[in-house]
From TrEMBL:
This is YlxR family protein. SUPFAM superfamilies: YlxR-like (SSF64376). InterPro entries: YlxR, YlxR-like_sf, YlxR_dom. It comes from the Bacteria. CDD domains: YlxR (cd00279). It comes from Ventrimonas faecis. Residues 9-83 form the YlxR domain.
Length: 89
């Protein structure tokens, strides 16, 4: 029998392709707000990141979120996301 295929997503920090379920989704809501989507099912544009602070720091340094969302990201958004990632990890 065929093994079940899992959707793959690329981390905006390290650039590795991993299973979608292993990663954290950062979401830009239609209202323009940035949130961590723990369920992976909320509406909006999403970017994926590994659940490690190393990848988060690489994403901040390499402007991975800014490339994903094609816009400048305010510093406060990064601070909020960092706190949420620390709670999850």
């Amino acid at each position: 029998m065929n093994a079940k295929k899992f959707p793959q997503r690329q981390c905006i920090g390290c650039g590795e392709m991993k299973n979608k379920k292993e990663m954290i989704r950062i979401l830009k809501t239609p209202e323009g707000e940035f949130v961590v989507d723990a369920t992976g099912r909320k509406n909006g544009r999403g970017a994926y990141i590994c659940p490690s602070m190393d990848c988060f720091k690489k994403a901040v340094k390499g402007k991975g979120l800014e490339r994903s969302f094609k816009m400048a990201i305010p510093k406060e958004v990064y601070e909020t996301l960092e706190k949420e990632m620390e709670q999850l990890g």
